[in-house]
Amino acid sequence: MYSIKTPGFYSPDATFRSIKKNNGCDSDCVRMIKSDVITEFSVLKGLTAFTTDYLSVYLKILFFVPLNAVLRIATNLFILLFMCFSVADAQERQVLSLETILQQIDQHNLLLKTYGLKAESYLQNAEAATAWMAPMVGVGTFMTPYPGQMIMDGRDRGSLMLQLEQDIPNFAKLNADRKYIRSQANVERATRDITLNDLRTTAKKLYYTWLVAKMKLSVLDKSTQIMQTMRKLEEVRYPFNQSRLGAVYQTSAKLEETENMKRMQEGEIGRAMAALNGMMNRSGNTAFTIDTTFVPQFTVAGSLDTASLAAARKDIAKMDYNIQSMHLNIYAMKKQSSPEFRFRFDHMSPFGSGMPKAYSVMGMVSIPIAPWSSKMYKSEIKGMQYEVEAMQMEKAAMLQETQGMLYGMQYQIKTMEQQILAMEKKIIPTLEKTLEVSVLSYRENKMQLPEVITAWEAYNMMQSNVLDEKLKLYLMIADYEKELYR
């Protein structure tokens, strides 16, 4: 019932009989490992073909080795299984490229969704601006004498009065207000683009930090291997008085120092992963990994004239929308000089006889051009005109400042690239050769351990410096792209 349909495999029962026959053990001995073998056969059914080949080798060995080696083989088999499951767990982690993360932020970030809702609210408010005032209806008495007064005739009793009143707005004023309110929706959309650019830059920096942390972990792993070799040599030499006990402790301290540096980089990776998850509107502990083959590339802008910058930058677009909105507001304020109308209808039904029913119709118009009323909107128009001029000057200053900053960033990035290239092509190979020579001399007892550690630290320090400079370069590229709204 546990047979494996793979060439070269036996059923569990056949395996037990072969072990008993080749090792000369009794049934109790076989029962000791029976559960382990059954477990291995069960696990074997769910593994890949690659893992199955390795397990077949281990199980075949059980037929030909002594019993005292069976336990060692079983131990190794469990280690192999643990490694297989660890690899499977790592493969389950989703690999996200930088472009995928940026798309997820654009689509799912909660902060970005608020700007769309705000823009929609302005559109709805714009439609509400064209509404009329509600009509007024009144009921009362008209020309009714006070109690106790002598009434000479039935006509003196007064009348019951019904009143209907409606304000009639100026349609030009309503349309001007509607256009002004609708224009503010464009400002909110431009604000969303600015926020998206900030989030994209933050995501890029976190991604680059994660990428460099991975590089540092790789460097630290290699450094750990070298120092572990040194420690093993010291432990072998110490019993023969060819090494000092302090050297063994020194290598152990260096190894622990390297492990602390690894923990620090793993902490950076965890922080970046949690922050990116939050920006993508996912649970902070959602596990994923990045594309470690990705290398940020610096692309110089084709043109840095102010016209190109104005077309590319969303903050300039927002200022343009603000200026347009201010012009529409000025136009709406000018429409305040247009008159508004009011209509009123009164109906009177007399209480006494001898009086006919009567009505009154009245039309009214406002006079906003009166000096004491026109002062308000005229002053506001002048104030908004000054504000528009200030915004236009601010826009020109921002473009000029951005242009100079981008030129400076270009020179700085090119210089950093040259520095990193020199460090990678000249300095690091020299230090690596120095370390190799030092290790070789140490193995030949021509050099003491402290000298090797000095070469090892210099090599590690330079590699760390190169990666730090790369991170600075990547962050500078992210800032450069932020200014261009790429």
TrEMBL record:
Q: Name the residues that span the membrane.
A: 69-88
InterPro entries named in the record: TolC-like (IPR051906)
The molecular function terms of the Gene Ontology recorded here are:
efflux transmembrane transporter activity; porin activity
Q: Which UniProt keywords apply?
A: Cell outer membrane, Membrane, Transmembrane, Transmembrane beta strand, Transmembrane helix
Q: Which GO terms describe its cellular component?
A: cell outer membrane; efflux pump complex
Kindly list the places in or outside the cell where this protein is found, as annotated in its UniProt entry: Cell outer membrane
Q: What's the superkingdom here?
A: Bacteria
Q: Is the keyword Electron transport assigned to this protein?
A: no
Chief localization: membrane
Q: What is this protein called?
A: Outer membrane efflux protein
- Organism, as annotated: Sphingobacterium spiritivorum ATCC 33300
